[in-house]
C-alpha cells in the first residue's frame, strides 16, 4: 500500500504568521503553525507531521510537494550536511537544522522498517487538486495565527488507504468533475445504493492512464473504474 499525500507551507510576511499542512483526502488531513516563522519551515514541518502521522501504518509514502527547497534538502543535500556535522560545504550552519535532524530520523526509521518514502515536485497554483487543498489549509492556518487564533488542526490520519486513482496524476481529473467534493460524492453514492469501497494498489503509470481516460470521457476516475468493473463482471 502506498499513501499519496500533498504537503505545503505558508507564511504571511515570511517571516510572519505561518502554517503547515498535509492532505491525503477530505477526511484525512492536518494543519498547524506558529505566530511567526518562514515559509520554508512550514514546508519542512508539513513533511515531518505527515511522516509522524503515518509512521505506524506500515505503508510506503509518496509525498507531493511544490517546494524544491524541501525536496532537495531531504533527497540531495541532507546526507552531506549530516556527514559534516550539519554544516554546508562552506562550513556555514545549515538553516533549519532542527527540522532537518527530525526529518533525517524519520527517513532513517522508515528505511529501517522497510518502508519507502518518495518525493515528487508538483507545480504550485497549477490546479493540482491535492496541492491546492494543502495550500489552502496551510494558508488558513497562517491566517488563524495572524488573527491571534489557532487553526482547526484537522481529523488527522485514520489509518485507512483513502487515496483514489486520480490523486496519482495531475489532479485535473478531479477539478474537471462536478463542483461537489469527493466527500460529498461519497455521501451521495452511499445514500442511493449499497456500496463498498474496493482498494487496490496499481502502478503510478496505470493510475495516470486511468485518470487520463476519465478526463477524456468527462467523468471522475471512480466513475470510470466502476464502469469498467461492471462491464467485466457482466461479461
Descriptive report:
The protein is α/β, with parallel strands linked by helices and 235 residues long. It folds into two domains: 2-162, Nucleotidyltransferase, domain 5 (2-Layer Sandwich); 166-234, no CATH class. 46% of the residues lie in helices and 17% in strands. The chain has eight helices and five strands, in the order βββαβααβααααα. It has a five-stranded mixed β-sheet. Strand 2 and strand 3 (28-37) form a beta hairpin. Helix 1 runs parallel beside helix 3, helix 2 packs across helix 3 and helix 7 (204-217) crosses helix 8. The longest helix is centred in the middle third of the chain and has 18 residues, at 129-146. The two termini are 29 Å apart. Mean pLDDT is 83; it is low at 164-195.
Summarize the structure.
The protein has 235 residues and is of the alpha/beta class. The chain has helices at residues 39-53, 68-83, 97-112, 129-146, 172-175, 182-192, 204-217, 221-234, and strands spanning 2-11, 16-25, 28-37, 60-65, 117-121.
List keywords for this structure.
five-stranded mixed β-sheet, Nucleotidyltransferase, domain 5, 5 strands, 235 residues, alpha/beta, 2 domains
Amino acid at each position: 500500500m502506498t499513501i499519496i499525500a500533498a504537503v505545503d507551507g505558508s507564511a504571511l510576511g515570511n517571516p510572519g504568521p505561518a502554517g503547515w499542512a498535509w492532505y491525503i483526502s477530505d477526511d484525512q488531513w492536518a494543519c498547524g503553525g506558529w505566530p511567526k516563522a518562514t515559509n520554508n519551515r512550514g514546508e519542512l514541518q508539513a513533511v515531518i507531521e505527515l511522516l509522524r502521522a503515518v509512521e505506524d501504518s506500515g505503508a510506503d509514502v509518496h509525498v507531493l510537494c511544490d517546494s524544491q527547497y524541501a525536496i532537495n534538502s531531504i533527497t540531495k543535500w541532507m546526507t552531506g550536511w549530516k556527514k559534516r556535522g550539519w554544516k554546508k560545504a562552506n562550513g556555514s550552519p545549515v538553516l533549519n537544522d532542527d527540522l532537518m535532524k527530525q526529518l533525517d530520523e524519520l527517513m532513517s526509521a522508515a528505511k529501517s522498517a522497510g518502508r519507502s518514502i518518495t518525493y515528487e515536485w508538483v507545480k504550485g497554483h497549477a490546479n493540482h487538486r491535492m496541492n491546492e487543498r494543502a495550500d489552502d489549509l496551510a494558508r488558513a492556518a497562517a491566517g488563524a495565527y495572524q488573527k491571534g487564533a489557532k487553526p482547526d488542526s484537522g481529523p488527522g490520519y485514520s489509518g485507512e488507504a483513502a487515496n483514489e486513482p486520480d490523486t496519482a496524476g495531475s489532479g485535473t481529473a478531479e477539478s474537471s468533475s462536478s463542483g461537489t467534493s469527493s466527500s460529498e460524492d461519497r455521501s451521495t453514492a452511499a445514500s442511493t445504493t449499497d456500496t463498498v469501497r474496493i482498494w487496490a494498489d496499481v502502478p503510478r503509470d496505470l493510475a495516470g492512464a486511468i485518470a487520463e481516460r476519465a478526463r477524456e470521457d468527462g467523468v471522475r476516475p471512480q466513475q470510470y473504474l466502476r464502469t469498467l468493473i461492471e462491464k467485466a463482471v457482466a461479461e
